[in-house]
Design goal:
By secondary structure, the protein is α+β, with helices and mostly antiparallel strands. Helices cover about 30% and strands about 20% of the residues. The chain is elongated, with a radius of gyration of 16 Å.
């Protein structure tokens, strides 16, 4: 088990759930204070502890012992967005390509793709992905593909 400082330094003092900064000097009892989340959604190797991630106390409490939900921002115009954590887990395990959202315009898809790549660089830094945008049916499909 890691210390709060070790996990915070590794995570760049950003909450893995909401992606906002975490103040290391706040009390661990403060809702915006730091806490360690033992991520149970990913299956660790046999005998290995669950991965630990930095989260605000309130974000960690709100999540509880269920699978995490990393929300898409409301300012992006995406339809049928895929659950980010599950998509990352599948792509990490199997590789390949997955459609993650539909957008009404190419510009909307480009904005969503830029946000997603930036967000995944902190959420799953070991996962190398790129976005593709494909027109079809009067909309644009945004997909993630693992880089090989």
């Amino acid at each position: 088990m890691s210390t709060l400082t070790e996990v915070g330094d590794r995570e760049g003092w950003r909450c893995w759930l909401c992606d906002e900064p975490v103040d290391p000097d706040r009390s661990v009892n403060d809702p915006r204070g730091p806490s360690i989340d033992a991520v149970t959604s990913a299956k660790p190797k046999k005998g290995a502890p669950a991965p630990e991630r930095l989260a605000h106390r309130a974000c960690n409490t709100r999540k509880g012992a269920v699978k995490a939900v990393v929300p898409w921002p409301s300012q992006l115009f995406v339809v049928d967005p895929a659950p980010i954590v599950e998509t990352v887990e599948r792509l990490s395990r199997k590789g390949g390509r997955e459609v993650v959202a539909r957008c009404p315009t190419r510009d909307d898809a480009e904005q969503a793709g830029e946000w997603l790549i930036d967000r995944l660089s902190r959420l799953a830094p070991e996962l190398r992905v790129a976005t593709t945008i494909q027109p079809g049916g009067g909309q644009f499909l945004l997909a993630l593909a693992t880089a090989r």
